[in-house]
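// run 5 | inverse folding | seed 20
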C-alpha cells in the first residue's frame, strides 16, 4: 500500500530525537540507556502508526518497548502520539527491521512482535516475509534464550506459511489461535490500527513460539 508523504514528517522527526532513533546501530547492546529504567526489552517490527506499542507500554509499564518502522510518514504519526503523551518506556526507530542483529546485541531482546506484516503473496518473494528462515535466524541471535515471538495476521496464506517456517526452523509453539478474537486470549489482546479496521472481515490468526535452546 502506497503511503502519502507528509511534508512535516522529516522536520518533526529531527526535532524530537528524544523519542526516536535514526542511527540504531550505534546503540547495539546499549538500548537500556534510552530508557529511564532497565527493564525487559520488547521489540515490534513494523510498528506502523504506533497504536499497539503505545497501548502496550501503558498496559505494561514494567517493560521497555521499541517500535521499528521503515516509512518516515508512518512513524512520524507514531512519534506525534509520543510527543503529545510521553511514555518513558517507549522508543521508536526509523530503519528497516531486516537486520535486527545489526541493531541489537546477542540476547538483548526479550520478545519480538510481528503484527500484520506484509504477506508478500508471490512465491518468488517468500524470502521477504518477516517469518522466513533468514529473518528467524536474526531473531534467534538477538532474543534471550527465554525470549519468544508473537505473530498476528489476518492473511491465512501467510499464517500457514509461518507455521511451516517456524516448525521447520525448530521453534516450539506455545500458543496457536485460528480465530483470536473468539478465543479466551482476546481478553488481553491489544489491537493495532489495522486490526481494528479489518478484523470484522475475517479471523485474526496468532501464534506464540520460542526457539529450541538445543538448536
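// decoded
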Amino acid at each position: 500500500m502506497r503511503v502519502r508523504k507528509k511534508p512535516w514528517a522529516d522536520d518533526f522527526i529531527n526535532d524530537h530525537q528524544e523519542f526516536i532513533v535514526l542511527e540504531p546501530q550505534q546503540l547495539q547492546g546499549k538500548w537500556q540507556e534510552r530508557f529511564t529504567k532497565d527493564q525487559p526489552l520488547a521489540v515490534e517490527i513494523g510498528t506502523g502508526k504506533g497504536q499497539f506499542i503505545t497501548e502496550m507500554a501503558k498496559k505494561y509499564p514494567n517493560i521497555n518497548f521499541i517500535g521499528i518502522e521503515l516509512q518516515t510518514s508512518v512513524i512520524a504519526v507514531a512519534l506525534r502520539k509520543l510527543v503529545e503523551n510521553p511514555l518513558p518506556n517507549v522508543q521508536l526507530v526509523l530503519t528497516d527491521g531486516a537486520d535486527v542483529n545489526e541493531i541489537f546485541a546477542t540476547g538483548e531482546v526479550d520478545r519480538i512482535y510481528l503484527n500484520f506484516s506484509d504477506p508478500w503473496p508471490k512465491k518468488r518473494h517468500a524470502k521477504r516475509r518477516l517469518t522466513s528462515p533468514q529473518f528467524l535466524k536474526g531473531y534467534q541471535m538477538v532474543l534471550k534464550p527465554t525470549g519468544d515471538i508473537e505473530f498476528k495476521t489476518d492473511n491465512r496464506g501467510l499464517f500457514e506459511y509461518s507455521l511451516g517456517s517456524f516448525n521447520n526452523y525448530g521453534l516450539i509453539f506455545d500458543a496457536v489461535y485460528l480465530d483470536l478474537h473468539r478465543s479466551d486470549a482476546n481478553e488481553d489482546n491489544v489491537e493495532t490500527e489495522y486490526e481494528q479496521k479489518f478484523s470484522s472481515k475475517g479471523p485474526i490468526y496468532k501464534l506464540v513460539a520460542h526457539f529450541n535452546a538445543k538448536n
